[in-house]
């Protein structure tokens, strides 16, 4: 099943002489396929995989060395550029020495590659983040008769493109296990900022069991035998490696809210379900409501990352347990979303929230309308 990626049009608009287009995103999200579609193998295009040692040896910040590589080509694509020790300097030399070039780089870690390019390329690059498939991409390119199957697949196995090409449950689980073990843990541990792979796994397991709930760094640390700062650093690393993301509680004083309240969601539910090793059918699951909440909020978050004007995203909960799942604020107005498995009455707590933000609208999301709502964004 081939699904057109919305990123194609965005990246085409990003291409500018004198600037690098950087495509971030987790492994297996489709970056290599996307770049080969946009920049097929032609005499004027050079595509290099920076995972290969022989390529890394040649990609050094030296104008003469790079001149031999570039030759008469007009486009150069550096795949998985975070493996270059001096990625930012290499890209800067390419821009300065070859102003005619269209330059594209990809990276599986915003943490690693962004650190390497930020200073050398200040003001000279544009970035796009390619995630696993969004609900909008799926809804637009899959017949409506298959939407129920697609939704179930997204909740159990996630939306990595490769998973939709596999047929059996065992085959999908095996692919997800490989993805999680060989790529997720290997890449994060390669940063050499995580001392214990066991603690990292235990932290991920705890977070995977608490999606939709507020979490406390100090409580997590106490359960894991880790100090609070280490827990927060590990979560920050996981966020920058596209494994999970944080949603902060809304307060009129955001400086205190950021420290006080946080929820953690997984970018892809297939990875989350692999971590807890649970692929039970949805009708037998007690956590299906939490899975639906994670799917909708992560989908909204993914689409917001690449928006021309990003919205500020929060959840809302009061001391007397009034709660709303997602607030999306832009220019002082709020879109409010409440996610429940079954369709129901509007969230009664929305009226309380209106006292804080009168310019607000409410959308109730459930298993029957999530594909339609997701496709409208």
UniProtKB/TrEMBL annotation:
Q: Which InterPro entries match?
A: AAA_14, DUF4143, P-loop_NTPase
For this protein, the parts annotated as crossing the membrane are none
The UniProt entry, under Pfam families, shows: AAA_14, DUF4143
Q: Where is the DUF4143 domain?
A: 186-341
Domain AAA intervals = 19-138
Task: Output this protein's name.
Answer: AAA+ ATPase domain-containing protein
Taxonomic source organism: Candidatus Taylorbacteria bacterium RIFCSPHIGHO2_02_FULL_46_13
């Amino acid at each position: 099943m081939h699904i057109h990626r919305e990123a194609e049009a965005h990246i085409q608009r990003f291409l500018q002489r004198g600037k690098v287009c950087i495509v971030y995103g987790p492994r297996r999200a489709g970056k290599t396929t996307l770049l080969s579609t946009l920049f097929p193998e032609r005499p004027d295009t050079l595509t290099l995989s920076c995972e290969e040692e022989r390529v890394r040896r040649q990609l050094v910040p030296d104008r003469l060395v790079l001149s031999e590589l570039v030759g008469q080509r007009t486009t150069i694509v550096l795949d998985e550029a975070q493996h270059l020790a001096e990625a930012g300097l290499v890209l800067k030399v390419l821009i300065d020495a070859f102003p005619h070039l269209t330059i594209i780089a990809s990276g599986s870690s915003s943490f690693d590659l962004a650190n390497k390019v930020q200073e050398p390329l200040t003001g000279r690059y544009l970035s796009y983040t390619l995630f696993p498939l969004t609900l909008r991409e799926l809804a637009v390119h899959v017949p409506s008769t298959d939407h129920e199957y697609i939704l179930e697949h997204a909740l159990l196995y996630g939306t990595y493109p490769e998973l939709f090409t596999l047929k059996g449950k065992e085959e999908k689980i095996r692919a997800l296990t490989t993805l999680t073990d060989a790529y997720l843990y290997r890449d994060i541990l390669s940063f050499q900022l995580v001392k214990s792979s066991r603690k990292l796994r235990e932290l991920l397991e705890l977070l995977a069991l608490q999606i939709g709930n507020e979490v406390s760094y100090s409580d997590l640390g106490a359960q894991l035998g880790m100090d609070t700062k280490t827990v927060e650093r590990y979560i920050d690393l996981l966020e920058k490696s596209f494994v999970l993301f944080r949603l902060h509680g809304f307060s009129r004083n955001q400086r205190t809210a950021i420290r006080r309240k946080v929820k953690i969601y997984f970018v892809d539910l297939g990875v989350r379900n692999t971590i807890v090793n649970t692929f039970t059918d949805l009708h037998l699951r007690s956590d299906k409501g939490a899975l639906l909440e994670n799917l909708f909020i992560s989908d909204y978050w993914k689409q917001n990352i690449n928006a021309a004007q990003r919205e500020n995203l929060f959840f809302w909960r009061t001391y007397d347990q009034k709660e709303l799942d997602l607030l999306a604020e832009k220019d002082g107005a709020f879109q409010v979303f409440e996610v429940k498995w079954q369709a129901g009455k509007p969230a009664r707590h929305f009226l309380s929230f209106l006292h804080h933000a009168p310019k607000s609208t409410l959308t109730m999301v459930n298993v029957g309308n999530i594909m339609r709502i997701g496709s409208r964004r």
